[in-house]
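Homework-ish question, so no full write-ups if that breaks the rules, but can someone show me the predicted structure for this set?
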Amino acid sequence: MSRARTAVLVSGSGSNLQALLDAARDPGFPAEVALVISNVAGVRALERARSSGVETRVVDHRRFDDRESFDAELAGLIRSRDCSIVCLAGFMRILTAGFVAAWPDRVLNVHPSLLPLFPGLHTHQRVLDAGMAIAGCTVHLVSRNLDAGPIVAQAAVPVLPGDTAERLAARVLVQEHRIYPLALALLAAGRVRVENGRVLLDAPLPDPKQAVAVPDRA
Ligand code: GRF
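A: Not a homework solution, just the prediction itself:
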């Protein structure tokens, strides 16, 4: 089986990267992490990649005059390593439309809210301020608009009495680690199709426990 070569873009701790690396250790997983790029030097995500024997590169966005030239450098690296999927995993830069168009419906992002609710930053505090009873996370395909692309997988997390943004974030993160590998597997296996801005799965998931996390529109 040939596995989809995947580039992961990171900026920090890389716990989602770790979830992808762990999943890809299974030879039956349809994607392999072939390259990890960070825009910040010295972050934990880079150590995680190295420990798994994955090539790492640092591309500091501050070296570039504009977003286009930064993205062009990223795109060149990713192309040169023959990656057909790009995963954003805590990558704190907004990509240009040109970059996104180079991998149509092949760029995934994980976001710590139930999109389309709470796009952008400080999601957990905003969930608490809004008095929500349910929080959660989303893996979506990246489109031109921030945090607005077609949804591949979601998981809900209850807000508990006395929650702080930190406590809620920690529980949401556990679910991110569950649904990101699932979404990557679906995309890499060619089971994700996009129609009218929505994800269609080509077949039901084998494990009904997982099916709660993806749109039921097969
Ligand atoms: C995650 O909460 C992710 O949803 C958000 O940034 C955080 C990254 O965490 N985009 P990590 O670097 O994967 O640990």
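Now go work out the reasoning yourself. Hint: The longest helix spans residues 165-188.
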